[in-house]
Amino acid sequence: MKMIKQMACAALAAAVAVGITGCGDGGSKDYSQPKVAEGAIAALVARPMENTSLATLCKQYGLDVPALIQKVSDKDFQGAVKELALDKAQTKWIAVTFDALTADKVKKGEPDFAVVAATSVDLDKVITYAEQKAKSKFKKATIADVPAYIALNGEKEDGYMANLDKQLILVSNTSAGLEKLIALYRDGKGASKDFGAFTLGANDILRAKATKVGENVKKNLPDPEMLKMVNQMVPDGDKIVQGLGSLDISLGASSDGKDVKLDLSLETASDADADKLASFVKTGVMALTAQMKEGAAKDADSKMAYEALQAVKVENKGKVATLSATTAADPALKALADKAKDLK
Fold this sequence. Notes:
- The chain has twelve helices and twelve strands.
- By secondary structure, the protein is an alpha+beta fold.
- A twelve-stranded antiparallel β-sheet has the order 4-5-6-7-3-2-1-8-9-10-12-11, sandwiched between helices.
- Strand 5 and strand 6 form a beta hairpin.
- Helix 10 runs antiparallel to helix 11.
């Protein structure tokens, strides 16, 4: 399991720092958007900011991928970049999905997951490099009639990978999970109805969704008594949590690239629950805003946070509690660039 966790982290890091510069569709299959397989309870998809209306600011502040790659000081990373030409790779998006959990897997930190990247990165070369430089071990296999690699941890199989049309890298921690991904993207079969059209808008940077939140929390908490602690913050909080439905989060830029906006919506079991939840969040935002006000006159980061908090809107529309926040893109990206001066 250790190896596949490392691969997942690497795949996520690739979305930010390894040659993600956008590419054409190519081929006959449409890999322009992610898909979610049946059985998933959570999904996240991201694209690089320079592939949105923030492109000019990303270039200005060195937040485009080529610039970020140069800032990473790790010699091994730079060696991989040079050997595999990762700085020239093109990737549209990267997605991570999690399948239904069990309390035991939550306790062990071993959920079933998949990582999919629409990318020009050559999986064969990556595997060869990992074997030679990192002394990782793999074996070749055929899964669902597709050439695949199986990562090995000693004699134990510890991860499954395949490449579709040299455009889509699929990774799962189970062979059944890889089969589902192949059926989903190659054959168009097995899409989750719960996630519907889970896609990135033109200027979306990130989208995330979780379904049946309350049901999964109730079923999979290692200690059920933990849920009752929520009552200390929100009256009947445990009941509200257990009644939660879908959670949707999106982070994106305005069409003119001047603003960045966060939108969040959370489905509850009733109008009353949504009202209680919204009231709790409003109180928290007000308290945090007051806390930031004092430092806003002294610190640039605090000032930006204070102004962003002032723009937060919390509402409840029927059974759905919503939160939205908008902030100016220029200072936000400048602050991000300051934090990324020396990536480790």
